[in-house]
Each structure stands twice: as C-alpha cells, then as structure tokens.
Fold each of these.
Amino acid sequence: MRQVAITGIGQTKIGEHWERSLRDLAGEALLAALQDAGRETADALFVGNMLSGMIDRQNQLGTAVADWIGFHGGVVKIESACSSGASAFRAGLMAVASGEMDSALVVGVEKMTDAAPTEVTSALATAADSDWELEQGVSFVGLNALIMRRYMHEYGWQHSDFAPFSINAHANAVHNPNARLPFPISAEMFQQANMIAAPINLLDASPIGDGAAAALIVPAENVRSEERAVLVAGSGSATDTISIHSRKDALFLQAAYQSAQRAYAQANVGPQDIDLFELHDAFSIMSALSLEACGFAERGQGPRLGLDNEIAPKGGRIPICTRGGLKARGHPVGATGMYQIVEVVQQLRGECGETQVDGARIGMAQNIGGSGASIVTHILKAI
C-alpha cells in the first residue's frame, strides 16, 4: 500500500441554507478543494451522507453531485450514520493507497434544516437499533443522557464538571468563519441552559445544520515537495454493538479504542505524540469518553482534562475542537467527519489564526456513528 496525501481542502459555512440544495453545497466544497489543490478533476468521487434519502428525498446522491460539478469518473455514496464523512474519506484513501486510483475527491454533505425538527429527530434515530431502541421511542439525546447519567453515578462527577468542553468549543468557534455558533459561553450560561433530556441540556448538545467539506487525495510520492500537502499517516475503523444495552461496558467506547489503536500503529505514534485531536463532541459526555478511549485520560477521568485547562489550543496538553467542534462549529451529520479532516489539515498548515496550535505536526480526527457503533479515526502529519 502506498502512502497518500491531502493536497486540497474546501468547506462551506454551516448554517440554515434555505436557498441552497445538497448538490450546491457539495459542489462548492468540492470545487474549492480542487482549486486549493490546483487541479481540475480526479479519478473518483466519494460522497459521505446519512439523510439524503430520508429528509431530502434524494437517493443516488453521488451521481447527483457528480452531475452538478461536471464530474464523469467513478462515484459512490457511503452511509454510516454520523461517521459517513470519515467512512467516505477512508474509502477514498484505500482506493488511492491500493493503486486502483491516482486521485480521489471526497466530500461529506448534509442538508438538515429544510425538514421539520421532529422529522430530523426521527431520521437521526434510525442510526440506533430499530428493534430495541427506536421502537421504544428513545432519541439520540435520550440515549446519550442515559450514558451520561450512568457515568456521573459511577465516577462521581457533577453536571457542571462538563462545562469546560462546551466553553472551549465556543471560544474556538469565535475565530472560525464557517462556524454555526461563533459566540462565547460562560459556566453560568452552561448551568442555566434549558434541559433537553436530563442531565443533557442545550449547551451539552451540538446543533444540526447544512454544510459540506471536501478534500482531494493523491499518492504522497507525487507531492512530497509541496509544503501545503499533508500526509495521511494512519487510518483505522471499528464497530461495536448498534444498541447500547448489548455492550459489555456502556461507559467505554470500544470501537473508538480499537480504531485509534489501529491508526496509532499504522502511523507509528501514540497518544503522547498527538498535537491536537478533533473529537466527536456531539454531546459533552462523548468528549470525555473519546479522550479516555484514545488514551488521553484514565477511565472515568475525562472531565479532568477540561477542568485543568488541558484541552485549549494555547498551552493545552491535548487541544480539542480547535475550530469549534460539533458543539459550536456545527454538526451536519454526514459532513462532520470531513469538516474534522479539513480542520486538522488547516492546523498542520498553520492556517488557524487565533486558535492555531503552536508547532502542530501531528493531528488526529475521530468520527463517531450512532452512539459509538461505527467509529473511524485518522492521523495526519505535516510533510
């Protein structure tokens, strides 16, 4: 398998794009990635998306997007719930690394705000177990609330101990022109936010939105002299049970651990080598669980990193959500994994301004599907 590098990236602002379609958003990000790479096309197109068939009434999304931008190579759409973006990137990575393709475009795209909130909630819930979770009427915020409640009970944390995760995300989003919620929040605001599903309140949860992010990947041997190229050093994926109650340990993200270990081994690095981590903070409890599963914190001690200011871009031991994360950049579900990839590339290029991690050379992105059922981890290195 040959090494692969990212040479171009593109993204749209996340928001309520009433006047724009799925293909329009995807096209903007893809054309931006091509322009950034100084290319006109690629051999294949991989599209990550979860909800187009359910809330946008558009299957064959890959072909629709290709048609929109005038692309005539091989196209495929990939769905793995909220990890669809990273899954599409991994598929493109394997195609180029194997030698089957010499270049690939990857885009994650989602358009969620045209549908009624109840319809979106119902569509998102289909990523849970349809027989044992969905049929009982539980939503994803409800499932995460159950996990968070048990975590607090087992390890003795208070709800306020999770506030630093959200505060950090919002502070970083202020400096991201593409963020959905670019404003700061305080600990008092966190505590007073409206409850959604106890103990999760409005400021524990990420907002949905419309958006797209894209990248162009090529063999690394062709671009080693390009300063802005970024090496894909490690890639790992793993799955767990789709239902939470079937897991041996509901408070440990086994698939996060396994996918991270595979990516670490491939990149020949460990947690101590990672300069920044774009984790999947769909809910604040997921920040704690991801940090623990990936080796940055001991079991039950994830919130300590936030309380000790170890997650900030400036001076933090493991900076997370440096462009706002899902919490404040926004979470257009099928696009999120590609936003994470794009943001790590920006960090390794030194393009993040006020939230630039000094001396960043190795970054990690982890995209979670469902409540931990499908998890994909990538490690990127500056060339």
Amino acid sequence: MSTTDRSIRIIIAVVLIGLYAAGIVTGTMAIVSLVVASIFLVTSFINFCPLYRLLGISTLKKEERLKS
C-alpha cells in the first residue's frame, strides 16, 4: 500500500469519525461509517489491505515493491 493510499484512507476515516461526532450521521449509517473508518485506520497502520491482495491490486510503485 502506497503512502498516498494510506494518507487518503486516514483522511476518510477522520472525516467519517468527525461526521459521527458532530451528529451529522446517525443510526445505521453511523455504525457503517464507524466500521468503515475502523477498517481504513487498521489497514493504514498495518500497511496491508486484504481486499487488494484478493483482487491483485498494488498501489506501490515498482521500486517500492522490490524493497518489500
């Protein structure tokens, strides 16, 4: 997972948590938003996305893939 991908996931997670905290998102949508935010944060911090692996997607540049 590239640095850009990780940054975008963290930003989206923070926005989703902020929407929940502000009371803009409530009910079932709030629960879904918090679950998605949690998944985005965890995958960003562990630098691995299982869905990317299943789909054969890599956001790393070739040089970065060789280092891993």
Amino acid sequence: MPITQVDRIWMDGQLVDWRDAHVHVLSHALHYGSGVFEGIRAYETARGPAVWHLDEHLKRLFRSAKLYHLEIPYAREALAEAVKDTIRANGLTACYIRPLVVRGYGEMGVNPLQAPVNVIVAVWPWGAYLGEEALERGVRIKISSWRRNAQNALPAAAKATGQYINSVLAKIESLKAGYDEAILLNEAGQITDGSGENVFIVRDGVLVTPPTSAGCLDGITRSSVMRIARDLGYEVREENLVRTDLYNADECFFTGTAAEITPIREVDDRVVGEGHRGPITKELQSVFFAATKGEDPRYADWLTYVEDRG
C-alpha cells in the first residue's frame, strides 16, 4: 500500500520534517538488514486517538533488539512518548505507526557491534492492509513454494528488517499467481503464518492456530483474538496444522496489526467453508473493532490515549 506523506517524523530524539528524514546510503541496515521494527495502529475513539497495545508492541521491539545485540538508546517510556508526540505533531486521529531501530552509518561488514544505532518513529494514515472489502468478502491465498525461515537460522521471535525478505518472496509469488496473500510452511510442512499475518482456522466451533514453535511470530493481535474468543466462550487451541487443515476448515482468517481480522475465502483454489466470512469470524471482528474504538470496557487497558483527558 502506498505511504501517505504527513508533516513530521521522530528521529533520534527530535521531530524533523518528513522530507528531511534521511539515513546515509552506507548505513549498515541498508546493506545487511540489521534493524528491528514494530507495526502498531492508533484508532479514532470518542476520547481522541488511542494506540492499540502500545506497551506490548514496545516490549516486543526491545525483545527483538536483544536477540540481535542491538542496544536501543532510549527507554521504553521515552519511545511511548515519542509515539504520542509524533501522532500529535501530525494531527492524526487514526494512523499506522512504525517504530524502527537500525544500525546506521560508520561500519561495514557483518560485524555490526560498533555501528551507531538510529531510532525512528513514523506515522501515516493507512487503511485495511488487504483492502476494506476484504474485511467482509475475504481474500484468496496460495500456499507458497517458499518455506519459512528455520527457527535456528533466523528467529521468528524477532521482527527484524532483513528476515522479512523471506516474506517478500512469498508475497510476490502469490500476487503474480493472481492471489491476495500467501501462507508459508516450515521445513516439516506445517503451517506457520502469512507473509505478515498469523492465521487461524475454525473447525466444529473450535479455533486453532499454529504454535510459535512452528515458526510464526508471537503476534499481539493473535493474542488479542485468542483472549476475545475465549471471553466469547470458544475453545482456542495452539496446534500444528498442515495445508489440508486450511482446505477443510469451516472458517479461516488472518490476524495482524495491518490485517486486523481478515477472512480467508479460498486456499489454493479451494473454497473455505461457504466461501464467505463465517459467523465466528464476523463475531470476533465485531468485538475486536469495538475494542479498538474504546467501546468495550473489558479491553480498555489495551488502549493508550494520545491525549490524557482523565
């Protein structure tokens, strides 16, 4: 999806003009993918913009950095304020938020430890990742011929910039084949996730999603949906799945900060369920979007308001 330009980006402790937010062409991250990031959303609510799971996202950012021996030169609380400051500076009521920590200019080679660290927070308006109509109609997906990174090659627990080239290969393959998105398998042939989303199936009223040990990211939206489903009385299991589990599911959907809850209507040209958004997916979406708008008190602590109005 194209980026909509706004006014300001937070870089290394200060807000700069959008067009002045530069890094050097010899920055370590540009050559070796040595960076970590998060994808976060802020939603419009009756109390103004509110950031969805801000603290959880920043905790994961620091966990990702730890795995790569990347020292973030700001406290988590300072980055939380940076996120709110950047939203305010751009006058946005809802937006996508991209915190990014990269190894900068000064060192070349695969030893990154002496490279300086740059920290960026950017925000911009962004709609539904797979299209607004997909939230109701669902998407067509393809099982990719590309396998997900092995856990002992590149750890799925980290959202690191360079390792997403694996997802880029799968995404391009699916688009060129006429699909909307891809699903990747691990080396054992088990389902991991989409190119940038977790995946769930519904079978006989039970929700099933792959465990993180299969190679998927421990998604924050994934955890939120598991909590919502259990609160609604559904059983939720983390179990290894294979491609035929998707083909034969009653319902299937993606979750993620960008994708939110997006139904899957076809897998490898096989219709899932009735070929449209199923009733459980619809119910989960209803509660999820109410929570993002601050309309469900059960999930009030999932929101951090940009303007604290008491």
Amino acid sequence: MSAAVINIIIQLIAGAIGGNAAGGAMKNIDLGTLGNTIAGAIGGGVGGQILAALVPMLANAGSTMDIGAIAGQAVGGGVAGAIVTAIVGAIKNKAA
C-alpha cells in the first residue's frame, strides 16, 4: 500500500475521532454521531493533506515506521476534524 493511501487513512480516522470528540464535548455544535463522523473525516482528510504539504516530514509518514510522523498525521487530522465539525455545527445552529 502506498504511503499516500496510508496517510489519508490515518487522517480520515483521526478526523472522525476528532469530530466525534468535538460534538460530544460541545453539545451546541453536535451533529449526531453520523454527522460528526462525516464532518470530522472530511476535515481530517483535507486538513491533514494541507498539513502534510506545509510540513514535509509528515508527507511520508505512511512509508516509514517513524512514530513521530504518524502521530503528527493523527493529531493534524484530529484537530482539523474537530474544527470542521465545530464550524458545520455552528452554521447548522445559525440556520435553524
């Protein structure tokens, strides 16, 4: 499996976890389990790719067993997933 695919999988999973954590922590932005997961995964994938472009060390995290690079991908995806979930939840609440 290529490094890019592994990186995306790490980012999507971490983003989904971050999205659910954000939705669980702040009930006013909660989109439900499925909504938090989808918004978080999208945010994790996109945010993780942006982070990998900005920090070259993270770009090849999936091709090596460097735990620091893998952790960087996971943290970046999780934070981006939480941020996107919060933004989508806030927009949803304003529209309702």
